[in-house]
Amino acid sequence: MKDLAFRVGQGIDVHRYGPGDHVVLCGVNIPYEQGIVAHSDGDVALHALADALLGALALGDIGQHFPDHDERWRGADSRMLLRHVMSMVSERGWQVGNADLTILAERPKIAPWIDSMKQNLAEDLRVATDVTSVKATTTERLGFVGRGEGIAVWASVLLYRQETKPN
Ligand code: MG
Description:
The chain has 167 residues and is α+β, with helices and mostly antiparallel strands.
């Protein structure tokens, strides 16, 4: 197994809406009539992505590395968390090939913010923006997302060994 040149990872996160006036997605502040209930800044997209990175290398999950009860992460900027996970990835000799995120939300509208999100992802993952993908969809008013109770994000990443960069 350790000779594989590629590793794939996936992550999912869900957060509930609560009192507030904005949501943070991929490090972008999006004005909204509610906020996200969370120990950190509630960046559900970066949490899903961090879990995908950890998953690709079978390093557990962000709950283990950044526990809810740890005061160091109260209100934390999830981009710092993501960069910490990326340092774990690169220390082990891996780089990100691409990352693909799907945000499920009835509201707010995500489209106007996608370019900024991709830019943040590219910086934190140390890649070009053309390998960071952020997509958004509603759930046709079905389920907790459709009722506007929260946001869910799916993330997938491909990692490659640093010495075997694909063409
Ligand atoms: Mg989370």
